[in-house]
Amino acid sequence: MATFKNKVVWITGASSGIGEALSLLFAQEGAKLVLSSRRKEELERVKKSLQIQEENVFILPIDLADTNKANEYTEQVISKFGRIDILINNGGISQRALTKDTPLEIDRKIMEVNFFGTIALTKSVLPHMLHQKSGHIVAMSSIAGKFGFYFRSAYSASKHALHGFFESLRMEVYNDNLKVLIVCPGKVKTNISINAVIGNGSTHNKMDESQANGISAEECAIQILKAIKNNTEELFVGGKELRAVWVKRFFPKLFSKLIRKQKPE
């Protein structure tokens, strides 16, 4: 089993939810942490909760939509710790709007953050991991990366795109001792639905019922940590909603019939 003691772990979206839960677990494992999101004050709150030495935590506020700064962000991490062992691309935004009600600019915003922001950061870190001849990259997808759903057209598209990119990258870096994990959460109780973008660009500001009844962020983080240790390539984590992935794969006509009957939210 892998150990994370003194490993440099960079987590985006670390200010809440799954990212915050992962930060706590890696801190308990003895890792050195880089915590990123747009909200510096929330990152400071997470940092205080970790109870590890000051020099082992680096707060780095970032905006994934500003892809031109990816190299600058990475150089700050290298300057602080000298290396990056694990990059967890957890930051992103969701959507709650019908396709007909979503302007193209909102589609672009979602793709910019979830896809281009993620791959820009990954590409900026990649040369350092290749030079080290070691590294682990985690991409946070969703079961929406396997099939579409109501109110998720751009969000689902951004997650589908991550699969194509990171599956290709995994093959390319296999002989360089780099690992790639794609995580597909189902329903996890976080603020993702509250912060989701609606058609006019404002936030949904509502906790979906199914989200509220999902597994905890802590349980999700535990499973992700295990998957990284075990060099798992793709992880599905959640409840009974994960069955839909397998129904779609083996019984596509039945899947289409069943998914249309699900409650849009």
What this model shows, in words?
- This protein is of the alpha/beta class.
- It has one domain (8-259): Rossmann fold (3-Layer(aba) Sandwich), CATH 3.40.50.720.
- The protein is built from nine helices and nine strands.
- It has helices spanning 17-28, 40-50, 70-81, 104-132, 153-173, 209-212, 217-229, 243-250, 252-259; strands at 8-12, 32-36, 57-59, 86-89, 135-140, 178-185, 188-189, 215-216, 234-237.
- It has a seven-stranded parallel sheet, with helices on both faces. The chain has a two-stranded parallel sheet with strand order 7-8.
- Helix 2 (40-50) links the parallel strand 2 (32-36) and strand 3 (57-59).
- Helix 3 (70-81) runs parallel beside helix 4 (104-132).
- The longest helix has 29 residues, at 104-132.
- The chain is globular and about 50 Å long.
- The mean pLDDT is 94.
Characteristics of this structure?
45% helix; 7-stranded parallel sheet; 15% strand; 265 residues; Rossmann fold; 9 strands; alpha/beta
Shape: globular
Structural class: alpha/beta
DSSP strand (E) fraction?
5-15%
Q: State the share of residues found in helices, binned by percent.
A: 40-55%
CATH topology type? Rossmann fold
CATH structural architecture:
3-Layer(aba) Sandwich
Helix-strand topology string: EHEHEHEHEHEEHEHEHH
Mean pLDDT value: 94
Spans where pLDDT lies below 50 across 5 or more residues: none
The value of Rg in angstroms is: 18 Å
CATH superfamily annotation: NAD(P)-binding Rossmann-like Domain
